[in-house]
Amino acid sequence: MQGKVVQTIVRGTPVYNLLYSMHAIDEIVGQADYWKQLNKKELKNQLALQAERSRRKVQPNSWQTALYEGTSQDDWFCSEGYKKFVE
After folding, report:
1. What are the tens digits of pLDDT across the range 22-69?
2. How far is CA 56 from each of CA 18, 23, 63, 68, 69, rounded to the nearest angstrom?
3. Please, what is the angle between helix 63-72 and helix 15-35, to 10°?
4. Which pTM value belongs to this model?
5. What per-residue confidence (pLDDT) applies to 1?
6. What is the structure's pLDDT at 56?
7. pLDDT tens-digit profile of 13-22?
8. Distance (Å, rounded) from C-alpha 48 to C-alpha 23?
9. Do residues 31 and 46 touch, judged by C-beta distance below 8 A?
10. For 39, phi and psi rounded to 5 degrees?
11. Three-state SS for 10?
12. Contact at 8 Å (CB) between 82 and 71?
């Protein structure tokens, strides 16, 4: 399934974004087993904490900070979206 997700993300994505897309996929896949243990509210809180406490302090303008901030605010991602990366 990961290959299909990669293909979906890559189509229509400018080349300079491809690297960030691949890193984001690795980040999501690496965390997904832990995230499965959380309900939607807990996951949103965990993502927001990750963005604020560790990512923003070290690299406020990084793709990781943007990833965690954005996903923490996305209801679809927190309820089922991240599962699409590990099915």
Report:
1. 888 899 999 999 999 999 999 999 999 988 877 777 777 888 888 899
2. 22, 17, 10, 10, 9
3. 50
4. 0.74
5. 46
6. 72
7. 555 577 788 8
8. 19
9. no
10. -80, 175
11. helix
12. yes
**Eight-class DSSP state of 34:** H
CA–CA gap between residue 56 and residue 59 (Å, rounded): 5
User: Could you give the CA distance from residue 49 to residue 69 in angstroms, rounded to a whole number?
Assistant: 9
Which pair of structure tokens corresponds to residue 68? Answer: 């965690």
> Which two tokens mark 60?
């406020």
Tokens of 85: 């990366």
Which pLDDT does position 14 carry in this prediction?
56
Single-letter residue type at 36: K
**Which of 47, 7, 48, 3 shows the shortest CA–CA distance to 27?**
47
Query: Which amino acid would we find at residue 32?
Result: A
Please give the pLDDT value at position 66. 87
